[in-house]
Amino acid sequence: MRKETRLVVAGLVLAFVGGLAAWIVQTGGGSIAIRDLRFNGPGGSVMSALLYVPKTATSKTPAPAILAVHGYINSRETQDGFAIEYARRGYVVLALDQTGHGYSDPPAFANGFGGPAGLAYLRGLDIVDKANIGLEGHSMGGWTVLAAAITMQDAYKSVVLEGSSTGAPYAAEGSPTWPRNLAVVYSTMDEFSVLMWAIPKAADAPKSAKLQKVFGTTDPIVPGKVYGSIADGSARVLYQPKTTHPGDHISNAAIGYSIDWFGQTLKGAKPLAAANQVWIWKECGTFVAFVGFVFFILGLGGLLLGTTTFAPLARALPVTKGIKGGGWWIGAVISMAVPVLTFFAFFKVGALVKASWLFPQTITSQIMVWALLNGLISLVLFLFWHFVLNKKASASAFNYGLREPNKLYLGLVGRDLLLAAAVTGGGCLLLLAADFFFKIDFRFWILALKPLSALQFGVFLRYVIPFTAFFLMSGVILNGQMRLGEAKPATRYWANVMLLAGGFLVFLAAEYVPLFMGGTLLTAAEPLNTIVAIQFLPLMVVAALISTFFFERTGRVWAGAFVNGFFVTWYIVAGQAIQFPI
């Protein structure tokens, strides 16, 4: 069996096994139905959600229910750990896409983030016990459920804020009596301590004057102690798991505290211990499926290169004319350092690109500007190196994987583009099949690949050219300027992974070691962008593999750049919020 065929088969097997395992976990072996919903919000806007329905919840035996909402630039699946554990205990769970997120209509932040619409929909279900409804939200999802709580003040019984707060820029001010029966789950290493509770370190939440006001005390709050009364709705409790802001999603403690609070404040759930949790196996299953997706698209690309249509693309590797010796290590340091040293500065420049019809996603636009400016820096450094140092070695665009020996054949570039479209399309079909049969996306934690909606596909088309340009330049650097021509193929793969992703590994270590050791990020004023950078690490690993795989088989950088441009743009657009009302 050819290597490419083995990759395709392995990818399909991993996607099936991982998807099946995830389905078994999230449905309790079939005892919980998961429905993909669309319903109307204010003004006819379309809202999206996943509804988890235990078999015990019927119109004759209504069950307690929970509205669970993700944070900024996440989607409904990010709350899977919470939703799975709530549903296992007999709660009906509505895992909502905020407005402008996932498959809910844009713009983001509109209509109370979609919280009031979500709570109204949940209360309208005849399988729900309307006297026992809880609200749970992570980060901006906390503000979403608070918007629901203040709009419908008698429509819920208790609230859990995970890594969130009252009185933030978009949330109503809390008090000792509002919201009703509040649990604040605020982790000791949460990156947003200043924004949420006006404290420099999250571990100091008990000393937050803002939080003390909500608890009705001027003394340091005792974690785990219940203040006020559950009976009259004034109960307050602070829990502090030892994790980070995004770590709440994959923390048994953070999830367990919310289970415990709803168990105390809502009636009708199964008496299952908070420590009894299985959600992690669903995350493992969808991660296995993600790995299978990567294997599948690589193998599919290899198989297509063996067909009549794409066989002309399969060429021998050009003679290496890249950097050698000590100069290679200097180039490696520059390649890894520049993208991370410019990260925050270029994101600030990107923030100047206001959300519009052309570029409607704020964070995506910031990443795009970062990519374009880094591509420009790489181009300038590459041209300087080529014309000043390397041209005398008879190096040409052929050696860098940009053209054939004598000229650029546009027909071959067109086939590269068609190949990339076929590979990406195959990956889309695999993901759609997983969504249809198992009701999953491909993810682990905040690494997530979702199917594009029709609206998101239009956004994809707006951003794909800039991202493809970046990967074309990075392909030239990896496989032309920095290629280890005398090394074994496996060494070239590892080298390219290091060159593209290694800087982010060092960057994240430099940010999070101070947080773990001292309670604050190295750049404490950049919590959101630091969290965004976490996804860069695995994403750049995959991009390096794709770039190297296709270069090794075509001797040119075009196919890998197109596949990476399509894949990464798809990944980013599907996972980001749309801030413009398109």
Taken from the alpha-carbon principal axes, the silhouette is globular
Remind me, CATH topology of the largest domain? Rossmann fold
Approximate helicity band: 40-55%
The first-level CATH class name of the largest domain: Alpha Beta
Quaternary arrangement of the chains shown? single chain
CATH-wise, what's the superfamily of the largest domain?
A: Alpha/Beta hydrolase fold, catalytic domain
Low-pLDDT sequence parts = none
Task: Let me know the largest β-sheet.
Answer: 8 strands, mixed
Detail the topology: elements first, then pairings.
Blueprint: H1 3-26, E1 32-40, E2 46-54, E3 63-69, H2 80-88, E4 92-96, H3 115-123, E5 128-138, H4 140-151, E6 158-162, E7 182-185, H5 193-197, H6 209-215, E8 236-239, H7 252-265, H8 279-304, H9 326-341, H10 343-350, H11 362-390, H12 410-438, E9 442-444, E10 447-449, H13 454-481, H14 489-518, H15 527-554, H16 558-575
Parallel strand pairs: 3-4, 3-5, 5-6, 6-7, 7-8
Antiparallel strand pairs: 1-2, 2-4, 9-10
